[in-house]
């Protein structure tokens, strides 16, 4: 019977080209594929015929490949057409110069604030050692690079107007830009004096973030808060800076503001005018206690400004350390 099985196995394998006559072990009649057999099978799969004699490519009939290619072509062409249609609709609806939602409909109801120098965006610490330029040269570079946009030669052209004679808010020419004169930042916070860092009296530059169409609302004598009653001036957004804790308030010392009244109304609203420059205020700390980390919050005041520390609206926080 064993000879019969051997004969049948030999007859069954004779017409096959997929297996060699090499046996796996002594006395075994199981056949092991060789490398040439695998190459032959791969070629048969890549381009060959099936059991019914139909020509196939990678295991799929040519007609099936044709239907597959047509189907995917239609699918991706439809997706691309849909995307192009939506983009065209967006480009037609969206105005590149004016946002669709503006105050009071916009979620941006109150502008935030920002400060310079901040050469490292991952920290809000302004640190320097009196007389050691290596500790504050990056602060000077950051201030220089920002104030360069306010130089006179960069505020020339038909779009700029002289607003030095305006005492209240602007009532016309909202598409024009008021020039901001760097002289308003005072005589102490200038590059020639190292912005105060060389003498241990650092200056910090503050600005209001731009919100399209936002207009500050003025206080009256009846509505002005007690916190700014002594320094408030009409048609100005008053700026106040103070230490956050009792220790900070004790060691922060007197504070100087340039301009002293804060931010004038005449620089608003921002309407994406070409060359717009937001107003600036320099804050100097001439007598901050050395070696003590000060936590400072600066607030800008107007009737329609809400101070929210979590949302960082209407105020800005930074740390100051002078050694």
TrEMBL record:
Family: Belongs to the X(+)/potassium ATPases subunit beta family.
Keyword Transmembrane in record: yes
Species lineage: Eukaryota, Metazoa, Spiralia, Lophotrochozoa, Mollusca
Transmembrane segments: 65-94
GO term, biological process aspect, one: intracellular potassium ion homeostasis
Molecular function GO terms recorded: ATPase activator activity
Cellular compartments per GO CC: sodium:potassium-exchanging ATPase complex
Primary residence: membrane
Alphabetized Pfam families for the sequence: Na_K-ATPase
Subcellular location per the Swiss-Prot or TrEMBL entry: Membrane
Mode of membrane association: Single-pass type II membrane protein
Entry protein name: Sodium/potassium-transporting ATPase subunit beta
Highest taxon listed in the record's lineage: Eukaryota
UniProt feature coiled coil, ranges: none
